[in-house]
Design a protein that fits this description.
alpha+beta; 30% helix; 23% strand
Length: 513
């Protein structure tokens, strides 16, 4: 059994207790029916089968869930990707360079990559993909706003000329949606002529995606002949399928179920700390969240340590109400002091803001993973302060597609990103495409822009830390913890390196033995 997380000696007794707790939870999960999967063989037949939640869309512009990104990652290529330590790794871009003035990034596109129809991948395909995102105003386009021009540069190379320096620009090109399409591609999201390590053989909506190894892949043919992603509407059913041997692995599961697997030597388990986090957020552009006193009341009503212990069972780290956590090292405001939970003070702030009888609200929550546990735990804490919430569980994919950006109070899961700037550009700037709280703070905008462009490391660090303090003091989000990422594989499966964003995990080198 492989583990990426060592357990200090002084934690053993606690973890042993949690293993006993998890074993009971796993036994309960095991009661889920596997009737629909009795005919599925194991990886011994040359196919590797991984359980995922059912994807809602495979259009790169709107795909966001782990299962959706996992399919795109298998069928297409990114220009650049990152490893588990957030280092940049070449993919379709075999190398890159930066001009002395910090304004021109030149990427060399490898000349041995081909789409599944046999045609070569060229600079024209990259340019077409970029233009497609810009014209459709996708979130990828928002990450390219500092680009003045992009053009072919020499033999099979592409140059991005920026309007101002951006030391993190290459990380923007690693965005989950930024897979490279063939120029002129049609039926995007339903037809998949990528250049990735696997070729789609059959897509059975609501059931599975069946992919075969791309024997001509520039990175070498994958070590498994066939990769199947088996879809489940319920995460617990996927866990039960792994327990029953109907599928070979799962990369999205709750903490207690993972602990149940971790105590079983017949499975290989991995877990890594991440920058991914769960949060609750108030819309700040309308009442009641438009009042900073109300936002502060929600913060004062919350015990983050208690929620972390209850929901995360000691994995990950406690949050401080911003997306910048310990995983970002020097950028993290470790010295920030989170106010102690004070329900009475929270109630007084609500009364001062015009809510003497407290608040009654609906807390919209995706119905998967640990999100319902988070919602119930935080609702119980808030009630003592007069914040009465009805937890409304919703299908995860429907929630992201229809409710997420609209509701007054919601739970959100943010997958791991390699740098803090991506969170800030995507969700916290006033003009951010995924500004779910509709938050607007001129000083925060200014600091985000400073951090994006400054080449002075001390200046960037100071900007990130000031942003964290502002969000802790008056921001619209409560971030109780940063979560760990988990993977469980059958004991005969190895060679898979778990990534912080589970959907970006590659299965090319999986070994069945």
């Amino acid at each position: 059994m492989s583990k990426n997380r060592s357990i200090p000696a002084n934690e053993l007794s606690r973890r042993e207790f949690l293993n006993v707790f998890a074993a009971g939870a796993a036994a309960a999960v095991g009661t889920v029916s596997l009737a629909g999967f009795s005919g599925i063989a194991s990886a011994q037949d040359g196919a590797l089968r991984i359980a995922w939640l059912t994807p809602a869309t495979l259009d790169p512009r709107s795909a966001s869930g782990d299962s959706e990104i996992a399919i795109l990652n298998a069928l297409y290529d990114y220009l650049i990707e990152t490893d588990a330590a957030a280092n940049l790794v070449p993919r379709l871009a075999s190398s890159w360079s930066l001009s002395d003035d910090g304004l021109v990034y030149t990427l060399q596109i490898r000349d041995d990559a081909h789409f599944h129809d046999g045609s070569p991948v060229t600079v024209d395909d990259v340019l077409w993909t970029i233009q497609w995102h810009i014209e459709s105003e996708s979130t990828v386009a928002s990450l390219l706003t500092s680009v003045d021009s992009v053009a072919a540069a020499g033999e099979n190379a592409i140059a991005f000329t920026l309007s101002e320096p951006n030391p993190d620009f290459l990380y923007n090109l690693t965005d989950n949606k930024f897979v490279i399409l063939q120029a002129g591609a049609e039926d995007i999201g339903t037809a998949f002529n990528g250049s990735g390590p696997f070729v789609l053989e059959e897509m059975l909506p609501g059931d599975r995606a069946i992919m075969r190894a791309n024997a001509d892949y520039w990175g070498g043919a994958p070590s498994v002949n066939q990769l199947e992603f088996i879809f489940f509407d319920d995460q617990q059913a996927g866990i039960a399928a792994v327990q029953g041997g109907s599928v070979d692995g799962i990369l999205r599961l709750d903490n207690s179920s993972f602990l149940g697997f971790a105590g079983d030597m017949s499975f290989n388990t991995s877990d890594i700390p991440t920058s991914g986090h769960h949060l609750t957020r108030l819309r700040s552009d309308r009442a009641p969240g438009s009042d900073a006193r109300v936002r502060k009341a929600f913060k004062l009503a919350t015990d983050r340590d208690a929620i972390w212990e209850r929901v995360q069972l000691g994995f990950g780290a406690v949050g401080k109400d911003s997306p910048i956590g310990p995983a970002f090292g020097q950028y993290f405001l470790a010295e920030a002091e989170v106010p102690a939970r004070d329900p009475a003070a929270a109630a007084a702030l609500l009364a001062e803001a015009g809510y003497p009888d407290g608040l009654d609200m609906i807390l919209h929550t995706p119905n998967s993973g640990s999100w319902p546990d988070l919602a119930q735990a935080i609702a119980a804490q808030w009630e003592e302060a007069g914040i009465r919430v009805e937890v409304q569980l919703e299908d995860e994919n429907t929630y992201w597609a229809e409710a997420w950006m609209e509701v007054d109070l919601g739970v959100t899961g943010w997958g791991a990103r390699p740098i803090p700037q991506l969170y800030l550009d995507l969700a916290y700037h006033s003009d951010a495409p995924w500004n779910e709280s509709h938050y607007s703070n001129a000083r925060v905008d200014e600091l985000i822009e400073i951090a994006r462009a400054s080449l002075d490391q001390d200046e960037r660090t100071a900007a990130y830390k000031e942003i964290q303090q502002i969000l802790l003091d008056e921001g619209p989000v409560v971030v109780p913890y940063f979560f760990a990422q988990f993977m469980v594989l059958a004991g005969n499966i190895s060679g898979v390196e778990l990534q912080p964003f589970a959907g970006r995990t590659n299965f090319n080198n999986a070994v069945v033995g």
